Amino acid sequence: MTQEAKRQRRRRDAERMKAKARRIRPDQPTGFWRADYLAVCSCAMCGNPRHVWKAGRLTRQERKAGLQESDES
Question: Cα–Cα distance between 52 and 46 in angstroms, integer?
């Protein structure tokens, strides 16, 4: 990828994220400042489970994959 293509991709992604931020927070006219971190909240339901539950618990997807592997063998 050339330097110009990388720059073009970054700009396109930034515009896409700003548009999403405007959809998430239509009440804020300058809501696009949230484009760098689009997570609306950081509660246990919305956040990264490895960050919230640090006790080494597996995610739902990992548990499901483990069950499928054990059923196959």
Answer: 10
- Map tokens 């483990």 to a residue: 66
* Global model pTM greater than 0.85: no
pLDDT at residue 37 tops 70: yes
Pair of tokens at residue 62: 């990992």
Taking a C-beta distance cutoff of 8 angstroms, is the pair 38, 17 a contact?
A: yes
- The set of residues, in sequence order, having a beta carbon less than 8 Å from that of 17 and lying 6+ positions away, is 35, 36, 38
Measured in residues, the chain has a length of 73
**pLDDT at 32 > cutoff 80:** no
Q: How many CA atoms lie within 13 A of 33 on its CB side?
A: 4
State how far the Cα of 51 lies from the Cα of 39, in Å rounded to an integer.
14
Instruction: List all residues 6 or more positions away from 36 whose beta carbon is below 8 Å from its beta carbon.
Output: 17
